[in-house]
Amino acid sequence: MWHRRLRRRLGLVTEHRRALLRNLVIGLVENSRIRTTYPRAKEAGKFAEKMVTIAKRGGLHARRVLISKLSSPPTAKKLMEEIAPLFKEQNGGYTRVLRHNFRPGDGAQMALLEFTKVIEKPAEEAKEKKPKKKKAEKPETEKVSKPGKPQKAPKQEKVSKKESASEKEPSEPAEEKKEQGQEEPKKGGFLGNLRKFLTGD
Question: Is the pTM of this model over 0.85?
């Protein structure tokens, strides 16, 4: 029977409900204020107050309990080092729920869940800016191209392979040998060695 049960089920199974409350408390610790539906805010506020009470104990055991409940070591660290010291002289009443507007889709009552004391975020250390590298100056010989028109590289004259080979090696001795009927002996290879062996060179 469900008589005198003070907690809300939120229309969720147990595992889902625990995960939801855990995520709401993690968001509350990170941002110090969250916006959600009113019933969820009430339940998350209860859970958050229990976590702050555990964090106020201090010590390794308290840290491990927080990590097991929240599954978030950074959140447990922030609870113990930043939030718990603010409520040292206070027994309860660490959070408050403020009714907000209504959700447009289904008209659900929205609420703000926040800590009762202002939690200041630590000032971020100024990051050192790396000096920008200066671009290498262009030599004066290069011409500046007009904007909008890409600069074209100077065209190189294409020389055929046959012409370049004919320039390097003169063709006259080869023609004279052909006229005499003598062939140029091939250098190297199996046939070249065989020719040397037969001719006796």
Answer: no
